[in-house]
Amino acid sequence: MAAGAVFTRRATTVAVALLVVAAVCAAWSGWSWYQAAHDDSARYARARDKVLAAGEQAVQNMNTLDHADLSHGLDLWEASTTGDLHDQLVQGRADFEKQVQQAQTVSTAQVLSGAVTELDDRAGRASVMIALRITVQAPQGKPSAKESRMLGELTRTVDGWKLSALGQAPTGDSAAASPQPSAGQ
């Protein structure tokens, strides 16, 4: 056998072997990707991300209110809540509107960080802790800012995740407290 034929046969054998290895690697990579994309932990992570986004937005909404656009702000509060918390907001809305109009304050909240502390996706319940910077501007004077940690409970509704309870998180030596159905602070 000529040296050229031996070389061609070896090159063909190596090429076929490399092709088989590449095909096996591609199949294994595709199967691994498919399993990871359809894994329960990936589905749970997506649910956790949705809860966190909804919780951060709802807590921010509940701590932001402008007396000049009060109706819109209170509508956002109501749209962000469900259950007893929602009922309390609806029932106390008229009195609260009067208080805010008299005070003429503007409060804005900025989410600093947040975490899902509990998630039961099957039952449609979750808990979050959200750190905020809340700035309040009165008609006269400088704006005052404070940082606050809020504990919220969320319930899944047909419209998505909504706050069903909201309260201050304990700080320092404070005893642990669970969120109560209240309208913010």
List keywords for this structure.
elongated, single chain
CATH architecture of the largest domain: Roll
CA-CA gap between termini? 91 Å
Order of helices and strands: HHEHHEEEE
Mean pLDDT: 89
* Integer tally of domains: 2
- The CATH class of the largest domain is identified as Alpha Beta
What is the CA-based Rg, rounded? 28 Å
The secondary structure category is alpha+beta
- How would a crystallographer describe the biggest sheet? 5 strands, antiparallel
Helix share, percent: 40-55%
Strand residue percentage: 25-35%
Q: Which of globular, elongated, flat, extended, rod-shaped describes the shape?
A: elongated
Low-confidence stretches: none
Instruction: Tally the helices.
Output: 4
CATH domain topology of the largest domain: Nuclear Transport Factor 2, Chain: A
Major beta sheet, strand line-up: 1-2-3-4-5
The number of strands is: 5
Summarize the structure.
The chain has 185 residues and is of the alpha+beta class.
Layout of helices and strands:
Layout: H1 3-37, H2 40-62, E1 65-66, H3 70-79, H4 83-103, E2 106-120, E3 125-137, E4 144-157, E5 160-168
Antiparallel strand pairs: 1-2, 2-3, 3-4, 4-5
Helix pairs in contact: 3-4
Region (Disordered): 165-185
Subcellular location: Membrane
Main location: membrane
Structure description:
With 185 residues, this protein is an alpha+beta fold. The chain folds into 2 domains: 1-38; 44-168, Nuclear Transport Factor 2, Chain: A (Roll). The chain has 4 helices and 5 strands, in the order H-H-E-H-H-E-E-E-E. It has helices spanning 3-37, 40-62, 70-79, 83-103, and strands spanning 65-66, 106-120, 125-137, 144-157, 160-168. Strands 1-2-3-4-5 form a 5-stranded antiparallel beta sheet, sandwiched between helices.
